[in-house]
Predict the 3D structure of the following.
Amino acid sequence: MFGNAEAYEHYMGRWSRVVAPRLVHFAGLPDRGRILDVGCGTGSLAFAIAERKRHAHVVGIDSSKEYVAYASSRNPFPDQVAFAVGDAQQLEFADATFDAIVSSLAINFIPDTKKALLELRRVTKPGGNLSAAVWDYGAGMQMLRIFWDAAVRIDPEAGPLDENRMPLCREGELSTLWRQAGLEDVHEQPIDMTMTFASFADYWDPFLLGQGPAGAYVRRLEPDKLPILREEIKHRLSLSSEDAPVVLPARVWSVRGVVPG
Ligand SMILES: C[S@@+](CC[C@H](N)C(=O)[O-])C[C@H]1O[C@@H](n2cnc3c(N)ncnc32)[C@H](O)[C@@H]1O
């Protein structure tokens, strides 16, 4: 589902770069100290933190070796940012290592989020912030909503794969998890943005790269169904021409909470 870093950049990494500065702002990160980026992928959040917090040190961890290698090879802040392969459910850091932790578009992909959150809490200093953001797959993230609504319309087998079934993507779910993990001063809010694709091809072609649940679905789709899906999506986008820009709203749910002292 994940693993090809170049393909991920074309598919979602470019939108992660739009989310990242907004999440940095929301997370209320300290100006100094050590900050952990969990599920760092190709590095967009770690780089956005480093750019805005010039006296902070950032560690990005991800379970994908390829993403970590890609992020490391493109690191514009080698003195400030380091990447490592790691599993959020079993971190190799000592207790209270980090002043703050933040995670962008990743927490919903971790198999045992409760276990991961206890680990994140363990490695954060008392009083430190723990923040995350997840796409609103059910409604607000139109790039994927239109894709899955079209897929389900032409293929009944797509239903169970629809990303709206993902955990933590609805209002209130992240804050419930944060409170269950014992975090204090929990605050959740949507962050809204606009995705502008230069043309229909700019919207559609990245789905053919096999990334994320939608890309994995396209790879498995019978070849004769692919043009049908493409037409159904075009119809739902109500495009005047394939060359016209595609402008879609997008929303993430973001949450922050404080590790108790
Ligand atoms: C949708 S990507 C988001 C990547 C990046 N944060 C971004 O905003 O582009 C989800 C990431 O979570 C990572 N991931 C999934 N399970 C993980 C785990 N248990 N520990 C660490 N990373 C994990 C994946 O490898 C992938 O890079």
Q: What stands out?
A: The domain at 5-258 is CATH 3.40.50.150 (Rossmann fold). The beta strands are 32-38, 55-62, 81-85, 98-104, 124-135, 184-197, 246-258. Residues 2, 12-13, 16, 39-42, 44-45, 61-64, 67, 87-89, 104-106, 109-110 surround S-adenosylmethionine (CB under 6 Å). The chain is about 40% helix and 25% strand.
